[in-house]
Write a structure and sequence with these properties.
Blueprint (H helix, E strand, L loop, with lengths): L1 H22 L2 E6 L3 H15 L3 E6 L1 H11 L4 E5 H6 L4 E10 L1 E5 L19 E4 L5 H12 L3 H4 L3 E4 L2 H10 L4 E5 H6 L6 E4 L8 E8 L6 H10 L2 H9 L3
Parallel strand pairs: 1-2, 1-3, 6-7, 6-8
Antiparallel strand pairs: 3-10, 4-10, 5-8, 5-9
Helix pairs in contact: 2-10
Family: Belongs to the bacterial solute-binding protein ModA family.
Pfam family, one: SBP_bac_11
Keywords: Metal-binding, Signal
């Protein structure tokens, strides 16, 4: 009889294991321009805690859509104003850092000033989609405020995300492009250089970790948010200019 009870208990335990493991998995979503630092932080978190993080990246419209339809995303990383404009409900916001817009260019090209994008050597100028990516929106603001919109509109190529602009730079398909400093640091060995865009030429980029409503009491969420404030995470964010 005791043996039978033991077997039943073991079977119950085995059936419960997948659920327990799933509870330890956290799903986060973020703008594609933050992929490098978040993947490094996720790796550090998993190594330290043994808990896995699933990460989803894309432009913010893709992120909002996937978060809404999947029902699995607990935390969304993005710019505060973009997050506020979404139809998603968030229980809390946690500051991560400030975003910086830069102009980067391909190897073999030398630009000394931002205004050099007017030069004939810059035939193709990449920009993330201003409607879907915060750095595309910031770049469009800069071009307008600097008076460069009309002078560059014929060479402007709109791409989906920051990493797509970076990929086109590395491959030489575009001559220069606007990306965030985070991605520019990630490809610095493969591009020709970068220049920061003056912050007074675009709206502040306030990067936040937003907790999706309904996930605020999950232990894996609070544990991860706590880890974001620890030395290891802060070092990664600093390295990537956040």
């Amino acid at each position: 009889m005791n043996q039978k009870k033991t077997i039943i208990f073991l079977l119950f335990l085995l059936a419960a294991i997948p659920g327990l493991l799933q509870a330890e998995t956290l799903t986060v979503a973020a703008g594609a321009g933050y992929k490098r630092p978040l993947m490094e932080i996720a790796a550090l978190y998993e190594k330290k805690t043994g808990h896995h993080i699933d990460a989803v990246f894309g432009n913010m419209q893709q992120i909002f859509s996937q978060t809404e339809t999947s029902g699995k995303v607990s935390v969304v990383f993005g710019e505060k104003s973009f997050l506020n404009r979404s139809t998603l409900s968030f229980s809390s916001f946690h500051p991560v850092g400030k975003g910086t817009l830069v102009l980067a260019w391909r190897k073999g090209l030398e630009l000394k000033r931002l205004e050099d994008i007017r030069k004939k050597e810059v035939r193709r100028l990449g920009i993330p989609d201003p409607e879907k990516a915060i750095y595309g929106h910031a770049a469009a603001e800069y071009l307008k405020k600097s008076g460069l919109s009309k002078k560059t509109e014929q060479k402007l190529i709109t791409l989906s995300t920051v990493p797509q602009v970076s990929a086109y730079l590395v491959s030489g398909e575009i001559d220069a492009g606007f990306i965030n400093i985070t991605d520019a640091i990630g490809i610095r060995e493969k591009n020709g250089g970068m220049l920061p865009v003056p912050r007074d030429h675009y709206s502040p980029i306030d990067i936040q970790a937003a907790v999706v409503n309904g996930f605020e009491k999950k232990k894996e969420v609070t544990d991860f948010l706590r880890f974001l404030k620890q030395r290891e995470s802060l070092a990664v964010l600093k390295h990537y200019g956040i």
